[in-house]
Amino acid sequence: MKPRFFLITLIAAVFVAMEAHTLSAQVPPPAAQFATPVLQRDDQGTVTLTCATPGAVIRYSIDGSDPGPKGGPYLAPVALAHGGVVKARAFSADHKLKSELAEAKFEPLPGVARPPTTLVPCTQDRDWPTYDWAKRHAAVTALTRERRAELVFVGDSITQMFGGQPHDRGQPGKNVWEKFYGPRNAANLGFGYDYVENTLWRLQHGELDGAKAKVVVVHIGTNNTGKNSAEEIAAGIRAICEEIQKCQPSAKILLLAILPRSPKPDASRAKLGEVNKLIAKFDGQNGITFLDAGTKFVAEDGSISRELMGDFLHPTEKGYTLWAEAMEPVLSRLLGESKP
To answer: Alpha-carbon distance 32 to 116, whole Å?
Structure first.
């Protein structure tokens, strides 16, 4: 073999080896090599989850379900002084590979009663891949801090689809948002599929800390109708208002009645009516103003038009216009833009 040919062959072999090494480094370990998470609880009842596999995402549950690829991501220790069952799996970043299930049952600490689920903060990612819950949490936390937002909206997908950055899903109310709130240094903390307890977790983990809020608008609770009583939902909403008061003590709260849902009156709409009666009692307490704009979406026969709610849950652009117009006089007064 000629020296020059030998040298070229050797160089080619080195490049092939380097490429193979790079590719192997990019390929996540097979499921069998994903370490099972370790669950530990301290004397204060705080549960910590760890995984020995680098880059793995731990997903957990505290409701007894097996955490799947859409389970809540573990982002911080879980307060579980009241006890319960924690289950966890480690997943690859693309949600496709997973570890074996880890499970632990923790007894309540002495004297600690079990609260309703609406008062136990936890994460969620049920709407993935429509948007990534953890990424949105990080993004809105940074955005609120950078803008020092003066007007903040807190809620679920109904709020998320109103408008505002980040644009991580469809926003039929975008034009309405820009018209009413674009000039007002507003931030949207709405997260699709959020339960009350998910929103409570977000507020306890920094989303409002960087704001300079004059008013915080709250609309949350519709996703809890299938698993919680009206009293439990109302208790969770009160906890959210209390958390807002801790984070932004000088801010006023505009607490909105949960919008009606379903084509015609049914059990879900009836439960929301019960919740609204309960949270209406918060009006005037600790800077809370309650407003019910839901009647504007319901016809005389009790029906809701697709013109206002395309899926009988999320407003259309016309529906968001009605909602914004109903809020405007109260919001302007709370922001100090008009005289009481």
So the answer is: 37
pLDDT band at residue 34, thresholds of 50, 70 and 90?
confident
**CA 324, CA 179: separation in Å to the nearest integer?**
10
Catalytic residue among 94, 266, 283, 311: 311
Catalytic site residue from 127, 157, 194, 219? 157
DSSP H stretches of helix in 127-195: 133-147, 157-160, 174-180
Residue 20 belongs to a domain: no
157 is catalytic: yes
Length reported for the chain: 340
Known catalytic residue at 311: yes
Task: Give the active site residue among 99, 125, 127, 314.
Answer: 314
Residue range(s) defining the domain that contains residue 79: 32-114
> The whole model's pTM is what?
0.89
CATH number of 232's domain = 3.40.50.1110
CATH number at residue 75: 2.60.40.10
User: For residue 21, what pLDDT is reported?
Assistant: 44
- 249 SS3 class: coil
| Residue 168 known to be catalytic | no
Quote the pLDDT of residue 181.
97
Question: Which residues, at least 6 apart from 136, have a Cβ–Cβ distance to it below 8 Å?
Answer: 166, 168, 191
Rounded mean pLDDT of 98-105? 96
Sheet holding 46-50, edge to edge: 38-41, 46-50, 78-79
5: in domain: no
Please give the distance of CA 37 from its chain centroid, rounded to a whole number. 24
